Amino acid sequence: MDIQVKTLAGEDAGTISLPDATFGLEPRADILHRVVRWQLARRQAGTHKSMTRGEINATGKKMYRQKGTGRARHSDKKAPQFRGGSKAHGPKVRDHAHELPKKVRALGLKLALSAKAKGADLIVLDSATVGEAKTKALVSQFKALGLANALIIDGSVEANFAKAARNIPLIDVLPVTGLNVYDIMRREKLVLTRAAVEGIEARFSGVKAEAAEAEGEAN
């Protein structure tokens, strides 16, 4: 698959060939759903918790005598049915993460890239560098390129470019090691630099794949 390469100024900078094995697959919503659900589950804090009877600071004295009152048998006021008592079957601190095979995760990333390419929502830039960290100038360049809601991926993000882009709404900038399915799908456009394309090819060809995958999916 050949695609036109642009500069930040909107000028043509040749073409680049994208591998069909990564950018030419037929999108599958079920795989994308599984990977996004896996990512979001890993991000979930899981720190919600309610107090048990043993954690409530209250007297342990029996409410009233066991027999002869005609009322139900109770011990102390920390029972769930009483105001100020514990919560029955309440949430506990836990990890929401679940397992997903590496092959499915890798396939999900390829399908996300292919979905952007097939929908004409993929743009390749020659480079993502600016002389000064000026947000106003970068907004004008993005407007000329038609970027209002986009994820920009570079091999290693330049400091000036990152500073200029971080205050622009609906624009995310990530290094190629942070590339993940959720961030791709939540933005309308995907912008890759030449260095990012090379990094993606290296990632799927096995060069530093384990380190890149671990760092990217942890986001």
Strand-residue proportion: 5-15%
Distance between the termini: 29 Å
Q: Helix proportion of residues, in percent?
A: 25-40%
What's the architecture of the largest domain in CATH terms? 3-Layer(aba) Sandwich
Order of helices and strands: EEHHHEHEHEHEHH
Instruction: Say which CATH homologous superfamily of the largest domain is assigned.
Output: Ribosomal protein L4/L1
Question: Uncertain spans, ≥5 residues at pLDDT below 50?
Answer: none
- What general form does the structure show? elongated
Oligomer: single chain
Enumerate the strands of the largest sheet in spatial order, edge to edge or round the barrel.
Answer: 2-1-3-6-4-5
- Mind telling me the C-alpha Rg? 26 Å
Biggest beta sheet summary: 6 strands, mixed
Question: Your description of this structure?
Answer:
Strand 4 (150-154), helix 5 and strand 5 form a beta-alpha-beta unit. The chain is built from 8 helices and 6 strands, in the order ββαααβαβαβαβαα. Helix content is 36%, strand content 14%. The two termini are 29 Å apart. Helix 2 (29-43) crosses helix 3 (102-118) and helix 4 (135-145) crosses helix 5 (159-165). It is an alpha/beta fold. The protein is elongated, with a radius of gyration of 26 Å. The mean pLDDT is 90. It has a 6-stranded mixed beta sheet with strand order 2-1-3-6-4-5. The protein has 2 domains: 2-45 and 96-217, Ribosomal Protein L4, Chain: A (3-Layer(aba) Sandwich), CATH 3.40.1370; 50-90, no CATH class. InterPro entries: Ribosomal_uL4 (IPR002136), Ribosomal_uL4-like (IPR013005), Ribosomal_uL4_dom_sf (IPR023574). Residues 62-76 have a biased composition (Basic residues). Forms part of the polypeptide exit tunnel. Part of the 50S ribosomal subunit. This is Large ribosomal subunit protein uL4.
